[in-house]
Structures are given as C-alpha cells and as structure tokens.
Design brief:
α3 runs antiparallel to α4. The protein has a domain of about 55 residues. The protein is mainly α and about 120 residues long. It is elongated and about 65 Å long. The chain contains 5 helices and no strands.
C-alpha cells in the first residue's frame, strides 16, 4: 500500500501558489501547452511498449520462427511509428509549429524576461 502524500505547511502552500502564479504570468503559452492527461497516457504507452519488447525478446530466444515473426512485426511498427511522427497528426508529435530552434528561442526569451525584471 502506498502512504498518503504529505501535506504542505501553510507557508509551503503559499510559496507554491506564488510560484504557480509567477509561472502563469511569465509563460502562459507553456502552461496552456502542458496536458497532464496526455502525459499519463504517454507514460502508459511507453510502459506497454517496454513490456512488449521484453516479452518479444523472451519469445524470440525460445522459438526461432516466432522470433523472426516478432522481428518483422517490430520493424513494421517502427516504420509506422516514424511515419505517424513525421505526418504531424495531432497526438503523434511532429508537424505543427515546432522547429529545431523553437524551444531554445522560447527558453531564451523566458530567461531574458526573468532576469530583466530582477
């Protein structure tokens, strides 16, 4: 059984609220782009993929014919995943307004705003 989460002191809760307000004020775009539900789904998908990989590796070692089939299936899934990523379909990454310089530029602007105010 898991233990209940420890509650914050009144001071700690006020400080946390202050940090959240500052984050919302400094970078509202980041706040609106974070989707906790999608992050949880992604975590479950990664866990399922890792378990599938381990199960496939065990089967591939036991039965050679099954190993070949699993290897071919894995290759097809990798190609399909890369295609979905490159297509830019919502929920699959890729596409959109992202470019290699997008995130660093945004981070630089946020840091510059933060230290300009100080």
């Amino acid at each position: 059984m898991s233990e209940p989460a420890e509650t914050l002191s009144e001071f700690g809760q006020r400080r946390l609220d202050e940090i959240e307000r500052a984050r919302n004020r400094d970078d509202p775009g980041f706040v609106s782009s974070v989707n906790l539900g999608a992050m949880r789904r992604h975590r479950r998908l990664v866990a399922a993929a890792v378990l599938g990989l381990l199960g496939g590796a065990v089967l591939a070692q036991r039965l050679q014919l099954v190993g070949v089939a699993i290897s071919v299936l894995g290759f097809v899934l990798m190609v399909a995943g890369a295609g979905l990523f490159r297509s830019g379909r919502p929920g699959f990454g890729g596409g959109g307004n992202w470019s290699p310089g997008f995130a660093p530029e945004r981070l630089q602007r946020a840091v510059a705003r933060r230290f300009a105010a100080a």
